[in-house]
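Example record for the data management plan.
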Amino acid sequence: MKLLIVVPCYNEEEVLADTHRQLSGVLSELRDEGLADEGGLLYVDDGSRDGTWALIKGFAVADSRVGGLKLAHNVGHQQALWAGMEWASLHADAAVSIDADLQDDIRSIRDMVKAYRSGADIVYGVRRERSSDTFFKKNTAQGFYRLMNALGGDVVYNHADFRLMSRRALQALMACPERNLFLRGMVAALGFPSAKVYYDRKERMAGESKYPLSKMISFALDGITSFSVRPLRYIAILGLLFILISVAVIVYAIVRYAAGETIQGWTSLLVSVWFIGGSILTALGIIGEYVGKIYKEVKRRPRYFIEEAAGMSVAQD
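Corresponding structural encoding:
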């Protein structure tokens, strides 16, 4: 069995040396235990502006098991992860994806490999709890998972992008043509036999999180609009509700007029205008999200361009 560990990197100079040391140790342990006869590390540099790529090239020179892909510019975490998994789908029996900060427990990789050898094509790394998160992040993350499931999205609760996928699952994923990537939903939608490995998430070793609040919100919107059309249905329902309310108001107004009473209340009129106006703008914004995704899809632009490759015969492929 050939196992490839795919590590997307963006400005990870501060942590990458320690990350490499730990992941190399995992590969050696898997080989010694007979769980993975061959193994490798593939770092994907997502347009870093620090010394990340120089470190990756150094790792590749020192260790034949290491390879690197340098993307021409920053395309985002999901696209960079896709680039690594696309290469893995052609050159490995299975691949594990993990972030470079190693907040995910690398000891779980051993359990993932065991689950794979027992027949699982997809093994999800699932957090037991969120004690290391802030109150805000913990509650917003849990709310996101609940919302996704309520809207019909099939996502694994408390699972991010720490997972193992077999070559069969990887190749099936590569057959998906969309450019708007939400891998947590796409992988779950494949339907292959799966398993879960539970772990405790650690604090970041150094550096800063690459997912500030703005990116978290954008990522959540991508997930919702990529895997559910229910927001559009809710807009239609809201429109029907407004029609019913307007009919009731018209009937009320006619009755009051017939009784010879004037209609009082500019405040209620003002509030209703603002409320309906805000609802219309919200509806247009939601529709715009879907139209924008269609716009990106129909252009069919490549997901990424590789500027440079290093090690593990990557340059020849």
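Summary line stored alongside the record: DSSP finds ten helices and eight strands in the chain.
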